[in-house]
Amino acid sequence: MAEVVREVDSSDDMQRERGRESPSRSAFAAAVREEQRRVLSKLLWDETPIEVEGMTYLFYSRDLLLVALDLLQNAGHVQLWGEELGLGSDGSRLRSDILDSDLFLTEELNVRRVHGSLSFVLAVQHVIDEAVVTWSGAHYVYPIRARVPNVRDSSFQWVTVGYVPHVGKHAARTAAARLRASKSRNGLPQRCLAVLLRGLVGASQTGVTVEFPGKQPLTAGPRLLGIVADQLAERSIACLMGCSCEFFCSHCTVQRNVAGGPAGVGAPARDVTAVLDAQLDGALPRDRDPRPYLRDQLRMEHSALAFVPAIGAVWGLATDNRQLYNSISFNLLHVWNLGVVRMVAQRFPSFLRVACDGQEARLGPVTATLDVLYLRAWEMKHLNVPGPAPPGYVSGPLDVKRTPLVVLLIYLKSLFCVSLT
Q1: CA–CA separation, 410 vs 96, rounded Å?
Q2: How much is the pTM?
Q3: Within 13 A of 304's CA, how many CA atoms are on the CB side?
Q4: What tens digit of pLDDT does each residue of 340-355 get?
Q5: Is the Cβ–Cβ distance between 218 and 209 less than 8 Å?
């Protein structure tokens, strides 16, 4: 009997110990959140709540200036100043990367003119990828990655500096709901970029002191010299209309009906000052009177939205040489990706007839297949919007029979997220 009592007592002690080691579910979740905040704080990540149109979104980011300085000072091999490579055998100027480009060398002259000979351009490039990090349902976010071209280490790669929350498709089929969703999609990225660039904006004008071991202090002039994105993302960053607009080129004012032909050659470049002034004039009364027709002039003259791009606050993009639109680069894969899907989607019935050898597709008739594709996109709360122009602004029919079916299948599968095998 005594042994039984001791066993019961010991079992009760074990249960109490387990109770202390295994807290309730709410306490465990709170402890996980606290540990997450501690780790994010240690890595200098910020969690910023951003309210747009009555909805609160969480933007996770690091200060882009601090990230750039950390990459520069911890690099094994850096190049602070650019140089021209000379001329080739045909008399054309040689170029290898961003550090010998006209864009970098022009900004270097401006930085050294303002801050002296002991200054250099701290070049920063960033890419906003439209590939969602995860569709698991935990987070719908798009990554923002950055790199510093001054860092010449062979192992250097892009680093993640932020995650832009995803704005889902509006559920209501009303004009007011569409307007709120449009304002959220256009306004949220700009607020996220404003948070991301909060330190770099001021430093781009005043400069920031950088010290290397055993060297005299230098003054770095941060410049945003590359915005890598596909056509839709670059239009969103610059607050330009994405589709169904007259001037769909981010660099010039070529009209869509003459783009790709002789009449489109020599179109004037976009006037950065004029477009930004027009966007400021349209953004100020936007919240007081949201009626879209009040901003028809802005859309007709510049194909721009009544939002001000946050990157315009970085010195050198809207001042000095005004490189706002020249800094926009593009991802060849994304341009090809969006262009192929645009042309294939218009000729989807012909594609299915060739791919299925004259028989019906696996999902049934063409209309049923399209319904399944649209339904899948709706379930994922993501719209696969095609670009307003083919790759390279080259128009013309797509010969489905001559296009490799493997390529078409890959792009359809990646864009529509359904199994076509």
Answers
A1: 32
A2: 0.72
A3: 29
A4: 444 545 566 666 667 6
A5: yes
